Amino acid sequence: MTTKRPPVKRPPAPPKRRKPPGRGGRGGGMMFPLIIAALVVIGVGAVIWAISANNSKSNKSGSSNISSAKIERSPSVSFTGTALVPLPSSGKDPAVGKTVPTVTGKNFAGNTASIAPDGKPKVIATIAHWCPHCQAEVPRIMDLRSTKKWPSNVGLAALVTATDETLVNFPPSAWLKREGWNAPVVLDDAQGQQSVGKGEEAYGVTGFPFLVWTDAQGKVVLRTAGEIPEAQLQSMLDQLSKGQTPTNPAAGASSSAGG
Prior knowledge:
This protein is α+β, with helices and mostly antiparallel strands. The protein has two domains: 28-61; 78-256, Glutaredoxin (3-Layer(aba) Sandwich). The protein is 27% helix and 16% strand. It has helices at 31-61, 132-146, 172-178, 198-203, 230-241; strands at 78-80, 102-106, 112-115, 122-127, 155-160, 185-187, 207-208, 210-214, 220-225, 255-256. A five-stranded mixed β-sheet has the order 6-5-4-8-9. A three-stranded antiparallel β-sheet has the order 1-2-3. Strands 7-10 form a two-stranded antiparallel sheet. The longest helix is centred in the first third of the chain and has 31 residues, at 31-61. It starts with 30 loop residues before the first helix and ends with a strand.
């Protein structure tokens, strides 16, 4: 069951000193070059280890910047293109065939980030930390990703919205880190559960979780509000990866956007 949104307002190491060779000290002149060579090898090894460790840390958090979270909400969000109309509760979705807007805000690290068409099919998930149905759906998505059942040619991104410090499961960065989220994230600017963010407005969000399914050209092929069982989600992803329109499921359980 999908609940309608209620109306709301909007230094390098110093070289060692060379010792003079002892009397009759055979080969003493070779010590200095050997020491320098050893220092170079140690230094190069340390640099390689540091780069490897850094890459490993980055890969664990993907491009979502969750591990280096500094903010939980964008100070402002903008979008280019035409906002999609709110998803109707029944009947044909007028947003199908429209180009999805490009939404720009901040990620958890406080850096500018965007969700935009990039030449391949994509699923854009709008989620809220306090939403129990999002808490159920995100693990399904991550299970498909971790078991390689998520098609390699289908992208994923999240718009994290309606962040509210007074509600359960805050902060969203900690929640998504626990779930192993490994896809790009843009934080919406909604000031709490009752506020509608600019990102929500761009996608025509009516409930959480809210998925916008787009083709390789960035055209909307489907929008869904509510939970989708994992097996059905995988089937829909397979269809999207082959250039087909995913079969629209019956509306699943969802949380009302805006409270």
